[in-house]
Design goal:
117 residues, 6 strands, 34% helix, DUF4806 domain-containing protein
Length: 117
C-alpha cells in the first residue's frame, strides 16, 4: 500500500540517504511510504533549504530516493534542523577516533610485513 503524506499535517523528520551517506531534514509531504519502506521526492535544483523550511509541495518530475526515517516528527523546521545537526555530530568520527584508526591500520600493516625465516 502506497501512502502519500499531505500538507494538512505540517511536520518534518530527519532522514538518512544511504546511497549518499547523508542526513537531511525532510518535510513529510515529500515522503512516500510503501509498507515499511520510505521514499523521498527531492527537488532537482533551486534553494532546497528554503523549499524544505517553507514546506513546498513536491513537483511531479522530482526524482524519488529511498530514505530511512531516523527521528520522530517535529512541529517546526528549526527543531528538526537542530536534531539533524546533533545526529550528524554523533555519527561523525572525531579527529582522535580517526587518528586511532589510522594508527591501528599502520600497526596491522607492519605486522603483516614481518618476515620469518
Amino acid at each position: 500500500m502506497l501512502i502519500r503524506f499531505h500538507k494538512n499535517n505540517v511536520l518534518w523528520v530527519v532522514g538518512y540517504f544511504d546511497n549518499e551517506n547523508k542526513y537531511s531534514v525532510i518535510p513529510n509531504n515529500w515522503l512516500i511510504q510503501c509498507g515499511n519502506i520510505y521514499f523521498c521526492k527531492w527537488p532537482k535544483n533551486g534553494n532546497i533549504s528554503k523549499m524544505k523550511s517553507s514546506f513546498e509541495e513536491p513537483e511531479n518530475d522530482w526524482p524519488t530516493f529511498p530514505v530511512k526515517i531516523i527521528t520522530q516528527s517535529f512541529n517546526t523546521f528549526e527543531e528538526a534542523a537542530i536534531k539533524e545537526k546533533e545526529i550528524f555530530i554523533l555519527a561523525t568520527p572525531s579527529e582522535s577516533d580517526n587518528t586511532e584508526q589510522v594508527n591501528k591500520q599502520k600497526k596491522k600493516k607492519k605486522e603483516h610485513r614481518k618476515t620469518y625465516y
